[in-house]
Amino acid sequence: MTTTSLPARAAGRRTDRRWVLHVVLILGAIVMIYPMIWMVGGSLKPDDEIFSTLNPFPTVAKFANYPDGWNASHPVFGFYFLNSFIICLGAVVGNVFGCSVTAFAFARLNFRAKKFWFAMMLGSIMLPANALLVPQYLLFYKLGWVDTFLPLIVPKFLATDAFFVFLLVQFIRTIPRSLDEAATIDGCGPFRIFGRIILPLLGPALVTTVIFTFIWTYDDFFAQLIYLSTAARETVPIGLRQYIDSSGGSSYGQMLAMSALSLVPTFLVFLFSQRRIVEGITTTGIRG
Amino acid sequence: MTAVAPRVRDRHEPAVAISPAPRRRRRRYDRAAYLFMTPWFIGFAVITAGPLIASLYLSFTNFNLLQAPNWIGFANYTTMLTQDPRFWQSFGVTIAFVVITVPLQLAFALLIAVALSRKIRGTSWYRSIYYLPSLLGGSVAIAVVWGQIFNKKGIANGILALFGIHGPSWTGDPSTALATLILLNVWQFGSPMVIFLAGIKQIPGELYDAASVDGAGAWNRFRFVTLPMLTPIIFFNLVLQVIRAFQAFTPAYIISGGTGGPSDSTLFYTLYLYQQAFTNLHMGYASALAWVLLVVIAVFTAGNFLLSRFWVTYEN
Predict the structure, then answer these.
(1) Is A190 on the interface with B (CB under 8 A)?
(2) Residue B3: pLDDT band by 50, 70, 90 thresholds?
(3) Which of A92, B60, B198, B267 could lock B260 by a disulfide, CB 3.0 to 4.6 Å apart?
(4) Within a 13 Å sphere around the CA of A195, how many CA atoms are in the beta-carbon half?
(5) Which residues of B touch A263 (CB under 8 A)?
(6) What is the pTM of this model?
(7) What is the tens place of the pLDDT at every residue in B96-152?
(8) Which of the following CATH numbers is that of domain A76-245: 1.10.3720.10, 2.40.110.10, 3.40.50.720, 3.30.390.50?
């Protein structure tokens, strides 16, 4: 008797729990995205409405904050986007080149003290950037690269983002060696093995590299703060500061509008490559 | 093994040719390897290892970028430890931030990951929404928004007003400013959550079945199956988040306008380092600060590894 009623009762209780779980998760989700909703809502409000009400949605949408905010900065906000995208493009190309070439050598070729260098490479992943800050700045200063995009791009070509080297090495190790061996027998040297076999198969891992390089470079406030000083070189995160500093000149609505706009590129990348981002985080534990 | 090998061998590959080939191949590979490794070798020497050693040297000098550094021995370190209250302030602020933020962040990450690992509808939607702050939260834009939410007129006080509480200016009051930054960081628990989710999926279902047969309820299944099986991942997240939290910069810079205020209550270590290096041009002193940070992070990480022996269980 009890044996028949027990599972039924457990099942009933479980569906109840699910219902509760959904409510809790939905409430939590609202709390999680409330700041974003408030930002977008506020960007569509006149200034006197932003702080006076708890309702995040505007009574009448004031789209003017966007064009007004866009033109309120000197130079116009689009210029910051242009600079950010140039840096991101350079960094992406640099990382794809530098890290794939290095990863190929670590995963497939033999050279002196490879294990030692591999350990050094792994160690450099954990190294806090601050520890290298002053001498790197000094180096770029002596090279005359301060206030150019070069300090933000050139290191990527030198595979200094060891994290991606590691990611790509791990991926290359899953490509069967028999492919290399077959190509060797057909007379391919390491260059053709890299270009014709490894690189085409590296696609998914390179996409992960591109996505994260873009997101991190786009958001890299610290490096841009240090290396870029004139207005003509300023990027989105640097440019956004103008809206806080000169809160007398530009309005809160415009500040929120440009803040929201600055998140659009990252958000779009997230929308279209969510699965890859999740995979990238889980396979390697990178920060999001 | 040796018996199997001949059968597997490709028929295009004559057995005779095998002995001379590997040696020649290896020699050719070697030369190419250095070419492939050239970018990394240069980068490692010039961008990573060189600066690491150079900053150790500079930490023993007085250096303002414009004149040549001059050797002053341990003076930077003794000044820092004995005569610089702002160093201790920034050290305390950062330790407090790390010690409060990381456990809270991991607890939320684990809690939501366990909830989302249930077979319920819409998990991928929930996952996206809970992950999103982690992706956007480090940006200047979100720091700007955070500052507005927690200022005197902000919605945080608006919500409190519903309960008749008159909140302070959270970001403007020295006793609460750090708390807003901690909250901002805890809010970004998405990436450890995603890692936990993947880890929970790896736990074999039979373990839960066995536990249920033994009469374990939801809590006990979590306590005696999920939690022990996840300890390696908890440890991994812990190490990663501690290292990350020590280096937090952007929100403190944006919300305090670069000052670390009010009254140095949000003077993160990295922010102080930035001020010394680029506002005061005390590059030697900043290098000493950088090395102290490096050592502190190393000690915390080593400590985590040592302690892990007592609570992390690896499967055999």
Answers:
(1) yes
(2) very low
(3) B267
(4) 5
(5) 136, 139, 141-142
(6) 0.88
(7) 999 999 999 999 999 999 999 888 888 888 999 999 999 999 899 999 999 989 988
(8) 1.10.3720.10
CB of A21 less than 8 A from some CB of B: yes
Q: Using the beta-carbon criterion (under 8 Å), do A240 and B140 form an inter-chain contact?
A: yes
All residues at 6 or more sequence positions from B215 whose CB lies less than 8 Å from its CB, including other chains: none
Q: Give the nearest chain B residue to A285 (CA atoms).
A: B195
- Non-local (6+) Cβ contacts of A54 within 8 A are B155, B158, B159, B162
Q: Which residues share a beta bridge with B61?
A: B71
> pLDDT band at residue A286, thresholds of 50, 70 and 90?
low
Q: How many CB atoms lie within 10 A of CB A163?
A: 23
Question: Are B39 and B132 found together in one domain?
Answer: no
Chain A contact probe: residue of B8, B12, B47 with most A CBs at under 10 A: B47
Same-domain pairing of B93 and B35? no
- Distance between CA atoms of residues B206 and B225, nearest Å: 10
Domain count, chain B: 2
- Tell me how close the Cα of B208 comes to any Cα of chain A, in angstroms: 16
Q: Is residue B133 domain-shared with residue B230, that is, in the same domain?
A: yes
Residues B35 and B180 in one domain: no
